[in-house]
Specification:
The structure is a homodimer of 353-residue chains.
Chain A (H helix, E strand, L loop, with lengths): L9 H8 L3 H8 L7 H14 L5 H7 L4 E8 L6 H16 L4 E8 L4 H14 L3 E4 L4 H14 L3 E5 L9 E4 L2 H12 L8 E7 L11 H14 L4 E7 L4 H10 L9 E4 L4 H11 L5 E5 L3 H8 L5 E4 L2 H18 L7 E3 L3 E3 L9
Helix pairs in contact in A: 1-2, 1-3, 2-3, 5-13, 6-7, 8-9
The first copy, chain A, binds a DNA duplex (30 and 30 nucleotides) through helix 1, helix 2 and helix 4.
Chain lengths: 353, 353
DNA sequence: TGAAAATCCGTGTGCGGGCACGGTAAAAAG
DNA sequence: CTTTTTACCGTGCCCGCACACGGATTTTCA
């Protein structure tokens, strides 16, 4: 057991390439001051020998501390973004071993100003990398420009803006999730006469609607497979419980012909509460995201199915990818990482996460 | 902005304790040869200063090579275990950076002897840790005893044996997956008159049936929700294509009242092939595992749904957990890691993996 | 042609800790 | 009182890499 697989070191590379380890180091880190000839030679040897820098030695020698900043909406426990935050925390614990710090800059997802402030504070920290949930298009572009000009890599979470020079994107395929949602909603024993789409009423016109693509996918499925089915939009204000009941009473509550209800954001539990209180059973309700309250409604039968995504894992993957990129300089494996869409019902939700 | 990792080092401890770093090192690793007095002094200082050994330096200096052995069934590309192997490969690439080697010992999943040989060869390698798919109960217990007495930690993959002293388990909740399967099968527009359960005929009696628990879950669901529905077992030999057609022709093929078919292992594509060739449409077919051929059948509509698990991720998690345990000495986070059950249909399978 | 500037490159030190080696002092044996 | 044993302990080299520094070579330009 003597001849162990000798890991190839930077010295081996240097010897094989006929240069010194200093030169190899310069090539590895793109530090310049290397002639094209020896640069190519070194790269070839690295490839041939399969040299992989020893992470430990590398990190030990360069006592640098790196910071990844995350620009993520503030939220209360149990709300959508709390899962993402959880994933970030988890990742932070892991990468701290590699001298990488993760800090979060929160913002109010309904306020452009607070988003802008978060961006500014992150830029002023001069981080090594940035993860951002690009809730506001124009401000995100401003941020992207600022980061790009400083050479700071950034990734998008949950949604993306195509023409910003992002390093990677982690999120769900929105259009397809709407399509899938329609399939699940209509997969029951009866063909729906009418479907209620419950939406959040948006007074401020400046706000973008992150679920628009999802709704489009839903509508396309319906138009294609159930052109006869009526679609009725019901607008509610999530902050006003009384009005929610009122609005639902006037629409879903009066339905005689089988109640089909969907929501495209994570708030289906609002509808579930209503249906539960009113004692409406045998409804077909489909929503998104495995929030605690949604899963509870799933288990008691009020909600038929949820389409979920592991936003925590997604965030963890993003942080890991950024860490790898910062530490090893590797290009990210995939630019667009579409996370899988999980179908949850009462029988498999217990093992979800 | 060159923030240093301000950390107390072994030298700081040595100075503060009035000894040399060699002594501190001896204390840390319980290597003996230290007087009680200085031992206590060092321990106190370590506590006061909050000294934590630098992982990088430690691993860099101690060039120990660790090996994780995996005892996993051999298989051809596209078969069930190939995904697990893929996950192991992936993990191997990652942990190789930490000086951890991963080697696989394959065996024929239908042969106790080959399993025993794999176990023996692994034990003789004296690995740092072991992952095993415990396909044979008695032999696995023998392995467990042998490893335990050598102080070698081991984990179970895919299925587990409760009273072996395993460090962790990664797998699917089998009973529940059968329950879920029944729910999906019967969730359509018609109540099934009869359900065909296609099974692999096992001539050798010594073989354990890994899907027994799954079948039990299925049967319980059916008995509870559809007591009128007939269940007919159809036994096939996967190696004999002609006989498969024959058997199916005599059963499923003759059904007039809506064809409901399930299989509890990963071979549903065998049934799909038959149905496709025969031109039987509008069947309700549910199977397990996202093998390439199964997913193809899902997309062309022959199979209605698959219940899948990310066995690759599962394997990757297992290797990572073992690596963490070996390197950091941390106790594993969770002993029983039940992986989520994924419901796949034609609309979300594209984003699966 | 020679000097200055621009390029390129090798050497050496140190990161924090593991561990072999050898040394010193106290205890035991002769 | 020597000699040997035992119990402790400090020194120094090494792990693989990052990076500063200065030396060497080539290019530029007067």
């Amino acid at each position: 057991m003597k001849a162990e697989i000798s890991k190839v070191t930077i010295n081996d590379v240097a010897k094989a390439a006929g240069v010194s380890k200093g030169t190899v180091d310069r090539v590895i880190h793109n530090r310049g001051e290397v002639s094209r000839k020896s640069r190519e030679k070194v790269l070839r040897v690295i490839d041939e020998l399969g040299f992989k820098p020893n992470l430990y030695a590398s990190l030990l020698a360069s006592q640098k501390e790196r910071t990844i900043c995350c620009i993520i909406p503030e939220c209360r426990p149990g709300e959508f973004w709390s899962m993402t935050r959880k994933g970030i925390q988890e990742a932070a614990a892991i990468v701290s071993r590699y001298g990488v710090k993760v800090v979060c800059a929160g913002f109010d997802q309904y306020s452009v100003d607070s988003f802008r402030m978060a961006c500014d504070s992150v830029v002023s920290m001069n981080p090594s990398g940035v993860l951002v949930a690009p809730m506001f298009r124009d401000e995100t572009m401003r941020l992207a420009d600022s980061l790009s000009s400083s050479g700071i890599p950034f990734m998008f979470l949950d949604s993306k803006i195509d023409d910003a020079g992002y390093l990677a994107y982690f999120g769900m395929p929105m259009y397809e999730s709407g399509y899938l949602c329609a399939d699940i909603l209509t997969g029951g024993r009866n063909i729906p006469h009418k479907v209620y789409v419950v939406r959040i009423s948006r007074d401020k016109t400046g706000l973008s609607d992150p679920t628009a693509a999802r709704r489009a996918g839903f509508m396309d499925f319906m138009a294609r497979h159930y052109p006869e089915t009526l679609i009725e939009n019901v607008f509610i204000d999530p902050k006003d419980a009384a009005s929610i009941y009122e609005r639902l009473d006037a629409t879903v509550g009066r339905e005689k012909d089988g109640r089909f209800v969907v929501m495209f954001n994570s708030r289906i539990h609002l509808v579930a509460d209503y249906l539960s209180v009113k004692g409406f059973h045998d409804c077909r309700v489909v929503g998104f995201d495995a929030l605690e309250r949604n899963v509870a409604a799933l288990k008691d039968g009020t909600v038929y199915a949820l389409i979920a995504q592991h936003t925590d894992r997604q965030a963890l993957d993003a942080v890991n990818a950024m860490t790898d990129h910062l530490l090893l300089g590797t290009p990210v494996a995939k630019r667009d990482n579409f996370i899988q869409m999980d179908i949850l019902n009462r029988y498999n939700c217990d093992y979800y996460l």
